[in-house]
């Protein structure tokens, strides 16, 4: 059945592309002693300045229990700080330190290099990114039903 050939599996294409992109990021992230999930948390914080653990989890489409250890490791590296919200101490707010803010330009260059590694034009890159965002939204909505 052709629908079961690897080359016809969208999930395999996405898996393979993700694996290739993560391999492209890895050498630069290793030099900075960062994991890819830590990088994503930093990206979210550069964009939104400060976020709760729950908000980071929502933006990264992960569970808060997955984000907490990532944020703790970033704090140990002195890239973020965690504080409890004054009116609700159950809420943990994550903020970048100066050192965390200063990584932004370095990691921006890494992201640009990885984007170049894709070999896609700017238009193709943006189109693919939009298509994948739509796919994620649609599949997530179906799973929530």
The top level CATH class name: Mainly Alpha
**First and last CA, distance:** 30 Å
Mean pLDDT over all positions: 94
Helix fraction, binned, reads 55-70%
Number of domains: 1
Low-confidence stretches: none
Shape: globular
CATH architecture: Orthogonal Bundle
**CA-atom Rg in angstroms:** 17 Å
Number of strands: 3
- From N to C, what is the helix and strand string? HHEHHEEHH
Descriptive account of the structure:
Residues 7-137 form the HTH marR-type domain. 68% of the residues lie in helices and 9% in strands. A hairpin with a 7-residue loop joins β2 and β3 (92-96). It has helices at residues 10-31, 36-48, 53-59, 64-76, 98-117, 122-144; strands spanning 50-52, 80-84, 92-96. The chain has a single domain (2-110, 120-144), classed as Winged helix-like DNA-binding domain superfamily/Winged helix DNA-binding domain (Arc Repressor Mutant, subunit A), CATH 1.10.10. The protein has a three-stranded antiparallel beta sheet. The protein is mainly alpha-helical and 145 residues long. The protein contains six helices and three strands. The longest helix has 23 residues, at 122-144.
């Amino acid at each position: 059945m052709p629908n079961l050939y690897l080359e016809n599996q969208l999930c395999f294409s996405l898996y393979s592309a993700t694996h290739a992109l993560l391999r492209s990021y890895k050498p630069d992230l290793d030099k900075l002693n960062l994991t890819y999930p830590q990088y994503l948390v930093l990206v979210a914080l550069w964009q939104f300045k400060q976020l709760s653990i729950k908000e980071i989890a929502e933006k990264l489409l992960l569970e808060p229990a997955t984000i907490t250890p990532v944020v703790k490791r970033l704090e140990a590296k002195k890239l973020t700080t965690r504080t409890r919200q004054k009116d609700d101490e159950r809420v943990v707010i994550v903020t970048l330190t100066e050192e965390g803010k200063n990584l932004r330009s370095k990691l921006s260059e890494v992201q640009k290099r990885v984007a170049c590694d894709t070999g896609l034009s700017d238009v193709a890159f943006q189109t693919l990114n939009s298509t994948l965002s739509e796919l994620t939204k649609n599949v997530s909505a179906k799973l929530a039903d």
